[in-house]
Amino acid sequence: MPYLQPGCGNISLMSKKSHVEDFEGVTALFEALTSTPNDGYTYDWQVFSIPTKTDDEQHGVIRNCTVLYLDQCTSWNKCRRTCHKTGAASYRWFHDGCCECIGGFCSNYGINESRCSHCPEPACDEDED
Fold it and tell me: What average pLDDT is seen over the chain?
């Protein structure tokens, strides 16, 4: 199913709604893809990392929750397939078309905010009357 840019009437509301799903994930693959942004390749995503406590809080272990946002708007199915191929542990697809692939050390499905750099598309940045 191709991504259809929604009627741009209430894009701010759409950027707050999302769908999430878990994968088994391949943590080593996801960490490799998100840890070397300056290796000479051009990627169509942005990486964000935030410190988070793991389940082993009694030992005070802090790990980075790493998420990957695709730059362009994408369909729900393409978001799912892309995140699965990166080794992500889960994904979040925002109703504005933004796709977030979530690493294995994140709780609550990463960052609950649409941060894709080119999504929603510029035509929808302005409210229509």
Answer: 80
